[in-house]
Amino acid sequence: MGEVRHVANPPTTSTAPPPPTPAPVPAPTAAPVPTPAPAPARRTAFAEGLDKARAAATTEPGRLRIIGALLALLVVAFGAVTAWQTADRAAAADDVLHKSQPLSTAAADIYRSLADANTAASSGFLAGGQETAESRQRYEEDIDRAAEYLVTAANNADPGSPSSEAITKLNKLLPEYKGLVERARTYNRQGFPVGGAYLRYANQKMQKEMLPAAEDLYKKENQRLEDDYADATPYPWAAIALGVLALAGLAWAQHRNYRRTNRVLNHGLVAATATATVVLLWLVIGHSVARAGLNDSYEHGVRSLNVLHDARIASLKARGNENLTLVARGAETTKVTADGKEVTVDKYDHEFTSEMATLGKGLAQAAKLADDKAGEQPVTSAESNMAEWKKRHTAARGQDDNGNYEQALALVIGGKGATGECFDSVETNLENALAHEQTEFRQAAGDGLDAMTGLTVGAAVLAVLGAAGAVLGIGRRLSEYR
Amino acid sequence: MRARRVRAGLKGWGGVGAMAAFCALALAFVLLLPRTQSPDDGSAGLDGPGVAEGHQAADAACKDKDAEKLTLSPSAADGDTIAAIKARQGEKRKLIVGVDQNSYRWGYRDPNNTTAALEGFDIDLVHRIAEDILGDPDAVQFKAIPTNQRIPAIQEGRVDMIVRTMTITCDRLSDVAFSAPYFKTGQQLLAPKSSKIKGYDATLADTKVCTAASSTANTRLTEDRDAGRIPKSVNLDTVVPNQLDCLVRLQLGEVDAVVTDGALAASQAAQDPTVELKGDPFTTEYYGVAMNKDADDLVRRVNRILVEYRASGWQASYDTWLSATLGTDATTSKPPTPAQYLRES
């Protein structure tokens, strides 16, 4: 740039173009400007201060003081607002990564564990005789996991929030449910059908009270995740505007300085400008990178996770209904309209069909959302498991409709070739897909959060430095009047 | 810029998608729940459109104490209904029978029995009927029917017959046809041994009593409470799909007593040594096989089978299943012999 360094001119011979206000008032000492004689009546401090300021503005040192104060204020305000807004966003981004997303996953896992425990219990009952070691173990593991996730959820829920209400409810119902299942087991061992009645009661508790509460919790946590995203990603416009304003103010002050004194560089003001520029650039770039990371984590993580969770829940519900079709043995029916005619169909089988449709849609959507091979592969596998499941289910229904209950039972809960096999495969594949998307989410959101690292503290420190620079720079000019 | 557009789109569609999914779910629940309930409502209306037509003469004269006599005389002749059952092909050539899978020793699945077969006193009778009609005692498709679904299941043709500890009453005779009685019982009260309840009397004051939905017990208790035969303070709000669910509620302390048929109450008592039958049966009732009102040939055939069954088979089945809970002497449980057939058409 133009390295034209003018020799310092004495302030009295200011050759700057005439400013709007009549400037050249020689004032040897700035402060004790002769003020008008105090009015006989005492005036308010504010009015006096105003008068003083007005009087000060008439002298160059006075004006310089005001400019210095305003510049420092502007830079400090810029730093403070930046620190505040980025702290907010960083906290929200941190919540996304470490709180709301894990919680939304925990809530989905609570639902899954509960539904799976119930299915395992009813399968055990269906098997006739006594439940197998596997179904028992599965049930116990599910209950343990549900209890574990409930603690995680409870630790992170705000007291008195709807989420904590749902958690309390589930915490109360879980031992109740387990008690009913234990009784069912005991009576089953003795060969009494009242065991089956206990299992029905437990199932009713699960379907009517626990699963709705778990679903509620899942929805609430998902909403919280959405809210955190909404808090973390908007541009910090107030900080950006203040930054631009501070830079403009600094530029104007330096321009004014140049016009008045012909001096191009004032170290203090340059330092202030540099720090303000750094903060502004850091803010805009850091935030943009963070946003990109967060948006990526939403698009490639959360969206896929939501779809996969929903698909998993549908698959669990379908399996539960498939079992209940055999437990109830036609006891529950529902009316549906097909081809304009109202027909009575088995309630559980009907629900199985609709849950399978939901599962199919969910898997198709998940496949579309999957953005790499590793994410797509388990979803495609799950889709083929589902197709096989449907095929086997049709065969099982055929047997049951023909009154071959035992054959139907073997096709549903038997070992090889049963629908249970397909359900387990769907579960495993969905679990893999979920793990993959979870990793993707964590990576992207972590990158986003990292981009915000230090921004808050950095902005605050630099702003203080910048303000100091502005004050020093103006002070340097001021000292020339002494 | 691009990032912002993508994000905006995402946020929008992600949110909308999630909301839509939840809305759909909620809607599905809202739509499905009333539907699943509707059959229950249907069974409550006992004076359905079917009442007027049919056997008016019999209905008009029906008294509950003689209801069991209102059936057709036995005959082995095949009619339309039996012909239709026999015409079922291949795997489907089975008698479709509504039974209970929760009545200990009547119709239940023994959890310690490795096959999933249902067994009990009712089930024996079903096998006997299937053997007679289709020549194979195992040519049966069992359907588990809750108490309040017995009549709709017959009316909608979901089952050929119901053999499920079903009491013959005048109300039910206006909806379905019954065979001659195959068992005699009466309503009885079941309560914990330690309970202050002594029987079907004033000791029931301020207690909660459980009954099965659409059961004889439920109807009778409601009538008796309204008529003041039992204390007004008896709470009858606990109504469950199946009499056995009452035992669960009793054990959990949600109710103080259970009222059901004596035969079933004895089955409940057999599953829990801390409860017992309180007082004597306060009604006399008969179990019959329920069939469609128009299935005259089937009713006659079942009545003929029952004549034979009472002579040989009934006692053996009783000894196997019921002597342990109802006593070795079957006299009080035996249906009147010979049965009366007062229904003309």
From TrEMBL, chain B:
GO aspect biological process, one term: amino acid transport
What's the protein here called? Answer: Sugar-binding protein
What is the scientific name of the source organism? Streptomyces phaeofaciens
What keywords are annotated for this sequence in UniProt? Membrane, Signal, Transmembrane, Transmembrane helix, Transport
Q: Which family does it belong to?
A: Belongs to the bacterial solute-binding protein 3 family.
Residues covered by the Solute-binding protein family 3/N-terminal domain: 94-325
GO annotations of cellular component type: extracellular region; outer membrane-bounded periplasmic space
Q: Which PANTHER family match?
A: ABC TRANSPORTER GLUTAMINE-BINDING PROTEIN GLNH, AMINO ACID ABC TRANSPORTER PERMEASE
User: Membrane-crossing residues?
Assistant: 12-33
Q: What is the lineage of its organism?
A: Bacteria, Bacillati, Actinomycetota, Actinomycetes, Kitasatosporales
Which domain of life does the protein's organism represent? Answer: Bacteria
Query: Which SMART domains does its entry note?
Result: PBPb
